[in-house]
Write a structure and sequence with these properties.
The protein is of the alpha+beta class. It is built from 29 helices and 17 strands.
Length: 631
């Protein structure tokens, strides 16, 4: 795990000595991602840097940038290749040997051997760049689910990249300019979705994407795109349960490869509990960690303790507190470099700091709900698919709530088109009901203009179209996995984890787990006709012999859901929020109407948590503006 950065000056416009200093400055900004070793490479057009968190082969020989045996290829790599042992054995069978035991050298050698097609062999989370000295070309790629970040800036033949935005901002030619459409997308997707960033001119490489850069420009394309394939569905529930257990066991096994202490983020929910149970079958006692707030018996501590006792872990608990909140808020704005419209980073940040006191690598249950249908809305979507229309009460109510402007946009798009096309837009429209209503009320002139020309709905629908599902259920699961839940699945674990030099690994986001999950039909994943709603029915049944029944049967509780944010909104955090929501810069830039924001805030005690999260998002935008721009 590392922080990587670089500048490729194809036209030789920059001074070499200055570039050395600037890459060194970028590495300082990435120190938290890799405090164990730093390295740079400078030759000709290429200036590369790496800040390493040593987890596999912690020797000096495994440091980066790593140069190939023939001296032509130079790699900087952030992430983990979980199947590096199997790949190394395959290389050795073909006469290609590694001098280290690192996954970085395996990746470099397999790239030299197979070229870009090596991406199909990789199981892991990664963002890497390889410089070809002879051809003067740079190749970069990001993992399928987007677990590892890659941001870049390209202008006048100079390609600059890094693991985090703050490193790019060290470069004098990368200007701090607000990307207003990105703020609009951020409010709808919790974080700014790729390929956008909150800074104009800085782009995020999308998940599953590779890119070639030379003096003529950039060529980017997707290298992985699953499709809805009913012809490969598993039809027998027993076959599905066997596949789940086998795939989970094998995936967890390769993700436990580490030369540093390893544990699990344990919320007590089904997904993280399944990972703990899987590890307990094959490994010695491990550490588990839970952050929550004690709430008269309904906190996450109780469920996590049941699992920890059942599996014999060394369990650690941390109670989330509201004191020292200002320093925490500033940490998050500094770490993310962008606004975040969620309370999620608060407890992820606090938990990561706690975990680092004990271990360096932690597995998480991220992705299980998106893969197996764990949310209440999944049941409603399947019932809609089965009933064939708006007569489903929940769906009907949601449709009625769609604001008129958004509804017109949706109906204009699908008009008299097929039922399939309606479904693609309908779920996206329903998902955006609360935030669309919020924005319509509080947006200033500039943001209203932005909302006319930039449509979050379309980003969401594109995912459904790529997957090609003929129903709302499967289309929605893929939309969430690749777009709607990216903030929680990949952004929070990476940024908050690496802020404290903690690496999170997510078995449910492994490519084999994802592709296996896509082979399970909707009617086996969940059973809405059952009294408890049948959420994740097949997954629960697959685990019934591995976990206590009270955990298997427990209703879904969101990560951090027991933390009383609403209470703190109107007590400990009141003055801070009032100040940020009335920040004059929000009006000066024509972003928001502060009177409307404050009216909502003062009346917020009567509203739900979702409204407060929207207000929290605006407060984070306000704080971000104060931190990054002279206002």
């Amino acid at each position: 795990m590392c922080g990587i950065c670089g500048v490729i000056d194809f036209n030789g416009l920059k001074q070499s000595e200055k570039l050395r200093e600037q890459v060194a400055g970028m590495l300082i900004r990435l120190h938290h991602r890799g405090p164990d070793a730093k390295g740079t490479y400078h030759e000709g057009a290429a200036h590369l840097g790496s800040s390493r968190l040593a987890i596999l082969d912690r020797t000096q020989e495994a440091n980066q940038p790593m140069i190939s045996s023939d001296g032509n290829y130079i790699i900087v790599f952030n992430g983990e290749i979980y199947n590096y042992i199997e790949l190394r054995r395959d290389l050795e069978r073909r006469g290609i040997f590694c001098r280290t035991k690192s996954d970085t050298e395996v990746l470099l050698n397999i790239f030299m051997d197979k070229g870009e097609s090596c991406l199909h062999d990789l199981r892991g989370m990664f963002a890497f760049a390889v410089w070809n000295k002879a051809k003067q070309t740079l190749f970069v790629a990001r993992d399928r689910m987007g677990e590892k970040p890659f941001v870049y800036h390209y202008e006048n033949g100079v390609f600059s990249f890094a693991s985090e935005i703050k490193a790019l901002l060290e470069l004098p030619w990368v200007k701090k300019k607000i990307n207003f459409p990105a703020l609009h997308y951020c409010l709808h997707f919790i974080t700014v979705p790729a390929p956008y960033s909150a800074f104009e001119g800085i782009h995020k490489l999308p998940p599953s994407t590779k890119m070639r850069i030379n003096s003529k420009g950039i060529v980017a394309e997707r290298y992985w795109q699953p499709r809805y394939r009913p012809d490969v569905f598993m039809k027998d529930p027993k076959e599905c349960m066997q596949a789940i257990n086998q795939c989970l066991s094998e995936t967890v096994h390769i993700m436990c490869r580490s030369e540093v202490p390893l544990g699990v983020m344990l919320s007590g929910g089904l997904d993280s509990s399944a990972i703990v149970a899987s590890i307990a079958q094959h490994h010695k006692r491990i550490d588990t960690f839970c952050v929550s707030k004690k709430n008269s018996g309904d906190d996450e501590f109780a469920a996590a303790s049941v699992v920890a006792n059942h599996c014999g872990t060394r369990h650690h608990e941390l109670e989330f507190r509201h004191d020292n909140y200002l320093s925490l808020f500033h940490e998050i704005v500094k770490s993310y470099s962008e606004p975040v419209v969620s309370f999620g980073p608060l407890h992820t940040h606090v938990l990561s700091r706690f975990i680092k006191e004990h271990i360096t690598v932690a597995l998480t249950g991220n992705g299980g709900d998106e893969l197996f249908g764990g949310y209440n809305e999944h049941r409603n979507l399947l019932e809609y698919d089965q009933s064939g229309g708006f007569e489903h009460d929940h769906i009907g109510r949601k449709v009625e709530q769609i604001p008129p402007d958004l509804a017109r946009k949706v109906y204009q798009r699908y008009g008299d088109q097929t039922r399939l096309e309606r479904k693609r837009y309908l779920y996206a429209a329903m998902r955006f009901v609360p935030i669309s209503s919020f924005c319509a009320r509080v947006y200033g002139t500039r943001m209203k203009e932005v909302s006319v020309n930039y449509d979050p709905l379309q980003l969401f629908v594109e995912q459904h179209e790529r997957y090609g599902a003929p129903n709302m259920f499967d289309g929605a699961l893929y939309q969430q996995l690749m777009q709607g839940s990216q903030h929680a699945l990949v952004d929070f674990p990476d940024i908050s984890g690496m802020a404290h030099s903690v690496e999170y690994r997510s078995p449910f986001l492994d490519v084999r787990m994802v592709e296996m999950g896509m082979r399970i039909p909707a009617t086996i994943k969940i059973r809405p006709e059952l009294q408890d709603g049948g959420g994740k029915w097949i997954f629960r049944n697959a685990l019934k012999h591995s976990l206590p029944q009270e955990i298997v049967k427990m209703n879904k509780v969101g990560f951090g859901a027991t933390i009383p944010y609403k209470q703190w909104f109107f007590t400990a955090w009141f003055k801070f929020l009032e100040e940020k929501l009335s920040n004059p810069v929000l009006e000066d830039l024509q972003l928001f109407q502060t009177k409307e924001l404050l009216d909502m805030f003062y009346n917020g005690a009567r509203g739900g948590l979702l409204l407060l999260e929207h207000l929290w998002g605006v407060a984070m935008i306000s704080m971000w503006l104060d931190n990054y721009f002279e206002t």
